[in-house]
Amino acid sequence: MVAEPDGDLQGRLQERLQAIRAELPAHTRLLAVSKGQSAAAIRQAVALGQRSFGESRLQEAQAKQRELADLEPLDWHFIGRLQANKVRPVLRAFGTIHVIDSLALAQRVQRIAADEGLAPRVLFQVKFRPDAAKGGFSVAELQQLWPQLRELAPALPVGLMTITPLGLGPADSAAVFAECRALADALSLPECSMGMSGDWRMAGAAGSSWVRIGSALFGQRV
Ligand SMILES: *Cc1c(COP(=O)(O)O)cnc(C)c1O
């Protein structure tokens, strides 16, 4: 495969960014999912005005953050599975955590945030359909634990995050997005992180605050 010249990548990134921005509803922001993409690609997106980036793996993100340390601070979101023993370094490297999926993890984030003098924005991952492949609270669990989950200061609960199960059809995905928005509203949480490359338009229409777009923005991951 021939490496594509830098200018081409920049041009295509610009086209895709503009196309996505043109279609995003006013309440929806773009989280550029840069996992599997180079620091150079992130730098190009920053040059085009993008500031919020999502990463799934701590070490990969730390390496890119070091490479990009000359830039104005960026808005980093952690969207991967969060292991208990990684909470401290993840809180140091990311301002927003989308993947709180148990009370124990929530309380650990709270304790370490206090210890570190940080106020991370946190979202609770919810499964609106059974999905053995993914973490997340069931709706019933989240509601039952809510009195504890809502009080995580200095961490700041801001929203819910969901990933639709693989292979869910469009009508069912739309239903999941609507349920996520309704539950967030019922809990007075402003943000819903929902929608990826294949279904972000639908998620935006359903009231997504953050669409998490990787491949439809940067191209295939390496
Ligand atoms: C990788 C990933 C995305 C982006 O996926 P694309 O299909 O490339 O847009 C979004 N959300 C999460 C949680 C991810 O892990």
Structure notes:
The chain contains nine helices and nine strands. By secondary structure, the chain is an alpha/beta fold. The protein has one domain (7-218): Alanine racemase (TIM Barrel). The chain is globular. The model has no long low-confidence stretch (mean pLDDT 95). Bound molecules: pyridoxal-5'-phosphate.
Can you give the mean pLDDT?
95
Query: What Rg do the Cα atoms give?
Result: 17 Å
Question: What is the CATH third-level topology name?
Answer: TIM Barrel
Biggest sheet architecture: 9 strands, parallel
Number of strands: 9
Instruction: Report how far apart the termini are.
Output: 13 Å
Contiguous uncertain segments of 5+ residues: none
Quickly give the CATH architecture: Alpha-Beta Barrel
Shape category? globular
The CATH class label is Alpha Beta
Q: Assign the CATH superfamily.
A: Alanine racemase
The small-molecule ligands in this entry are: pyridoxal-5'-phosphate
H/E element order: HEHEHEHEHEEHEHEHEH
